[in-house]
Amino acid sequence: MVTMEPIVVGEHVLVGVEVKLPKTTLLTINTSKGYIMCGALDVGLLNEVLGDRKIIAARAVGVRTLEQLLHAPMESVTTEAEAMGITVGMTGVEALLKMI
Predict the structure, then answer these.
(1) Which Pfam families does the entry mention (predicted)?
(2) Half-sphere exposure at residue 33, Cβ-oriented, CA atoms within 13 angstroms
(3) CA–CA dist 12, 29 (Å, integer)
């Protein structure tokens, strides 16, 4: 099952996506520039293998809902996200606001 829902962050409406899979759920909240995602995101792969794409993304671990993803600290961020001022420990909301 795939669900999309509007996520309000500040004055902005973003897209939240939840994908229910066997034994796990993928979560992501997207802006036009980048996204935050649950622990399934492989930041190392984005930085090393797909570095030329300059993907702006951050990852939180241990989250089970989009609401938790918004408030969880980012556990890792891509090089491009870091260049925008997004840092480890920042909440999902803080990271998303820098991606707008």
Answers:
(1) DUF1805
(2) 13
(3) 12
Distance CA 65, CA 11 (A): 21
CA-wise closest residue to 34 among 88, 66, 82: 82
State whether residue 35 is helix, strand or coil: strand
What are 95's two structure tokens? Answer: 């990271």
Residue 100's DSSP bridge partners are: none
Q: From residue 45, how far is each of 59, 75, 78 by CA, in Å?
A: 13, 15, 9
Instruction: Tell me the per-residue pLDDT of 14-23, one tens digit each, with 9 for 90 and over.
Output: 999 999 999 8
Give CA–CA dist 13/31, Å, rounded.
9
pTM summary value: 0.90
Which residue's entry shows tokens 């671990």? 61
